[in-house]
Amino acid sequence: MFITFQNSKAIYLTALTRAGKQLWQKKVADFVTHQGYGASPAVYKSLVLVSADHKGGGKLAAFDRASGELAWSHERPKIPNYTSPVVVNAAGKEQLIYFGCKLVSSFDPLTGKSLWEVPGATEECVTSTVTNGDMIYTTGGYPKNHLAAVRADGSGKVVWENGVRVYVPSLLIKDGYLYASADEGIAYCWEAATGKEMWKQRLGGKFTASPVLVGDSVFATNEEGTTFIFKARADRFEKIAENKLGDEVMATPAICGDRIYMRVASHKDGRRRETLYCLGIQ
Known about the structure:
The protein has a domain at 183-282: Lipocalin (Beta Barrel). The chain has strands spanning 2-7, 10-16, 22-30, 42-44, 47-52, 59-64, 70-75, 86-90, 93-100, 103-107, 114-119, 135-140, 146-151, 158-162, 172-174, 177-181, 186-191, 197-202, 212-214, 217-221, 226-231, 239-244, 254-256, 259-268, 271-280. The radius of gyration is 19 Å and the shape is globular. By secondary structure, the protein is mainly β. The strands form seven sheets. Strands 4-5-6-7 form a four-stranded antiparallel beta sheet, with no helix packed on it. A hairpin with a 2-residue loop joins strand 23 and strand 24. It is built from no helices and 25 strands.
């Protein structure tokens, strides 16, 4: 297992066995806190990919999974940002796509070689990108609301964009359509190629957790612990179910097979308590 965390004004990457034994630990970069650290590491072949953007000057880096040795790194602008590195297959090749700090950047994930970099994102982004194989989709929320489709071939062409605020929850893509549970509690469906809005529906509450796709269904959980389940279909919004668990959910549910794992907080007698639930899908 690989974990990134902030400690003593720096970001560290730690490798652990499943039994919890520490194999190695490496300092990624110094870190100046703005709103905390929120990026996740990504495993790619023999490497672990890590990002640490901040207002003191960030870093995007890769470490060897076995030894923890630094494989490559890039310095980043002095802007707070929270995006995780994601490897996608787009424009005929595997690319590490990273956005925020007013840039959309692409690297060879194995060597760190810069493939292309274009202006196109807002300053502060949180979400992970998705692709239809031709374009990648960037979203952000500060200082402006931002959702855009960018060609993944390095041309820098922005095919379409809109001003919908999808700041923290990531997008989903299925069968040529994008789905979102936006921060302010509205579900959207857009045609991925053109940006045409197919439908939108108010769910209610605020969203921090990202929606999860299970077969043809989308599971979207708001901050109050209500999970909305609806069909991933473009012609209309179709709700399947609505369930509530706990008082607060900030983490994205993990769904594996017929089980749902949810990190939930409850408030009782003035105290906040977190619980990890394992739920069976009927």
